[in-house]
Amino acid sequence: LFRFISGDNVNPSTKKLPQGIEEGARAAVKNTLLAIDYNQQRKTEKAVSIGGGLHHAMSDYGEGFCVYNDVVIAAKYAIEKYNLKRVLILDTDAHAGNGTCKAFYSDPKVLFVDTHQEGIYPGTGSLDEIGEGKGKGFTVNLPLEAGTGDKAYELIFDEIIFPLAREYKPQMIIRYGGSDPYFDDELTSLGLTLDGFEMIGKKVRELSRELCENRSVDLLCSGYNLKVLPKIWLTLVAAISGVKIDFKESALDIRDRKITETKNLIEKVKGKLAPYWRSII
Questions:
Q1: How many domains, the chain?
Q2: Staple 21 to which of 17, 30, 114, 224, CB 3.0 to 4.6 Å?
Q3: Catalytic residue among 55, 56, 95, 116
Q4: What CATH number is given to the structural domain containing 127?
Q5: Residue 252 falls inside a structural domain
Q6: Do 176 and 218 form a contact (C-beta atoms < 8 A)?
Q7: DSSP for 15-55, written as a single string
Q8: CA-to-CA distance for 37 and 95, rounded, in angstroms?
Q9: Bigger pLDDT: 185 or 45?
Q10: Does residue 95 have an active-site annotation?
């Protein structure tokens, strides 16, 4: 499992990772695997791994702040240990999950759906990346324009994610991504408000209750505006858990940005996926 290891963080003089990096990465993987076990063994209805969702690491090297790809490890672990045939991975991080995408690109046991900002690191996740071989149609990339807001994200859930998930009938859902799609993130330029993150959490909760008996695991890692990160993470966890919290913010006028552009994107995605899914019309 630990072949999903980093190479880009190695100190060139010592040929070693900085002290604590590798140990911390292993701890993140362990937390995510524990979350899988607790959820699959019904020890808890919802399971969250703080620090999980390291989606850029590849099978033989790491990149993008990611040493081990705990998402890939966890999905493979769940498939092998619990004999799962269908796992939905939902990546709502602002960056495309290139490591996760590559790992399951030809594997129909995983439906990988990725919303991310177009044109930023790692430069992958185009509309044309829909899988290959037996996995063709099981990779779904939704590259969003900068500024894409809450209502546009909700359209994506209603028009793409829900129909696909209902047809696929996952036995488990793994969602990951932290606060970097926030409109005031310091590294990215998407447009979610706190209400948008709450909506995402509620949608995931609804899907897991309807389709897989609440077998869902949430991984939280990203975000580059430390002032708002705790509120966003808490908002996501609360919404997924069915707990109501009420954080106020004044950015209400940006929630309907990029709706027309997102509708156009949705139609293009439907065109790519229609040959593989009856629900995409």
A1: 1
A2: 17
A3: 56
A4: 3.40.800.20
A5: yes
A6: yes
A7: -SPPTTHHHHHHHHHHHHHHHHHHHHTTS-SEEEEET---T
A8: 27
A9: 185
A10: no
